[in-house]
Design a protein that fits this description.
Length: 407
């Protein structure tokens, strides 16, 4: 654990060391009631023995209990008025007047039992906390930076003779993690880091920079890239959560930006700060259109944009993509070459190569014509009877021909 030396005088006059965890414990208990206990979810940051450690810090003079007159102002007006009336003083006046009347007119021991008792950092403890505010802000904001990362950022700034404020230290630590994640192809972690930085800038009241960080979150979400340069299929593409879109919409309204201004700002921010991805399903221009639609309240329509999506290359070495997943033999991890595993006899066998990805647009065809049961019945056609020629008609016809031939 990285230890920061603090100068505290013990009974023997020796210099004692105060660790980062002790500084975080001081910040956690500062201003809290004396009966406060560290919850279980805070033990990872403050340690499992924080409740015992605060007692030692109290004995060493880094923190103390408040005096009754320091917390009497926390009582409501009704309690102050009743207390003054009980001792024969006027219960009228503002809250500040009632507090002043109690402090000036009534002995401290008489109301010590009625006022809250808190922890409060001493001058030495406050000075130590202010000197290492970067660690405290990291714990308060849950930014996920380790003590080593903050210490490395602080040493880097000191070597460059740059200002070592808490903000600059945290930003330098963020930048170092961005470089590491980009080099390692950890795109999901980079996406989460951009979101964390967006929250950091929101707390700093830098809304435009926070909006830029959320642009980068949207870029990585719509690209489809995950950790270790893996690419999800288009059907598994998960759009940016609605809560982030609502936050972006709120920030752009506070900045007075129109939808077209957001589109222009998005393209400019991606060009300046966006990471170079090995693949992205959509171009920045298409992403800007999708972003504007999301800000208007429409969900991402995967079918609508399938014709504008880029087609992955399963043979690419810049990223890993398999359109048809297959099971791997037991004991073989992701980082190995799994294209030709061995069978039980040690003979290498070939796996069927993945099918090249094809963006298929659903074909809408009409149903084949099926005649109704009524029409299937065979209709018997009526056969007209042949006309019968009478004998007299034949004789008349024969006599006419005979006369014509002169017979």
């Amino acid at each position: 654990m990285l230890c920061i030396r603090a100068f505290a005088r013990s009974d023997e006059g020796m210099i004692m060391g105060l660790s980062v965890r002790d500084i975080l414990i001081l910040d956690y208990f500062d201003g809290k009631p004396v009966h406060t206990k560290v919850p279980a979810y805070q033990e990872k940051v403050l340690g499992p023995h924080a409740n015992q450690r605060i007692r030692l810090l109290l004995e060493e003079g880094w923190i103390r209990y408040t005096r009754p007159q320091e917390t009497v102002n926390m009582l409501p007006d009704k309690a102050l008025a009743d207390f003054l009336a009980h001792y024969g003083y006027s219960p009228e006046g503002s809250h500040a007047q009632l507090v002043r009347r109690v402090v000036d007119s009534i002995p401290e021991t008489d109301y010590a039992h009625a006022v809250p008792k808190l922890y409060i950092a001493t001058m030495d403890g406050r000075r130590e906390m202010n000197s290492h505010m970067a660690y405290i802000l990291n714990a308060r904001g849950n930014y996920g930076l380790t003590e080593g990362e903050i210490g490395e950022a602080q040493r880097t700034l000191a070597a460059r003779r740059e200002p070592c404020s808490a903000k600059s230290i945290l930003l330098r630590a963020f930048q170092q993690k961005i470089e590491i994640f980009t080099m390692g192809g950890e795109w999901t972690r980079l996406r989460n880091l951009y979101f964390t930085m967006g929250n950091f800038y929101v707390r700093q009241d830098e809304n435009h920079t926070a909006l830029t960080m959320l642009y980068l979150v949207f870029l990585l979400d719509m690209s489809g890239m995950e950790n270790r340069n893996r690419l999800v299929t288009y059907e598994e593409l998960f759009p940016t959560q609605k809560g982030i879109i609502l936050l972006m919409n709120q920030l752009r309204k506070e900045l007075g930006m129109s939808e077209m201004a957001v589109k222009t700002d998005f393209l400019s921010s991606i060009a300046r700060m966006g990471p170079r991805l090995p693949f992205s399903y959509f171009s920045p221009q298409v992403m800007a259109r999708i972003l504007v639609e999301r800000l208007r309240g429409f969900d991402f329509d995967r079918t609508r944009y399938i014709s504008e999506a880029n087609t992955p290359d399963a043979s690419s070495k810049a990223y890993h993509y398999r359109s048809v997943p297959f099971s791997l033999p037991e004991g073989r991890g992701e980082g190995r070459n799994n294209s030709s595993p061995q069978d039980s006899f040690g003979i290498r066998r070939h796996l069927t190569p993945p099918v090249p990805p094809v963006m298929r647009v659903p074909a809408f065809t009409t149903r084949p014509f099926v005649p109704s049961p009524k029409a299937r019945r065979k209709v018997k056609r009526k056969v007209e009877p042949k006309r019968k020629t009478s004998v007299k008609g034949k004789e008349k016809k024969k006599n006419w021909i005979a006369r014509l031939l002169g017979r």
